[in-house]
Design a protein that fits this description.
alpha+beta; 1 helix; flat
């Protein structure tokens, strides 16, 4: 994941749980309607 600051600079934020766990967690969140996210237009 890359974070962007207001000034346009970016830095990398690694997920310490490993790619397999990250994908599993992301899939679970997506299947649950993206719980924890406020989506809008």
């Amino acid at each position: 994941m890359t974070h962007s600051n207001a000034d346009g600079t970016r830095y990398f934020i690694p997920y310490a749980g490993g790619l397999k766990n990250y994908v599993k967690l992301a899939d679970e969140i997506a299947a649950d309607g993206y719980r924890g996210f406020a989506l809008g237009r």
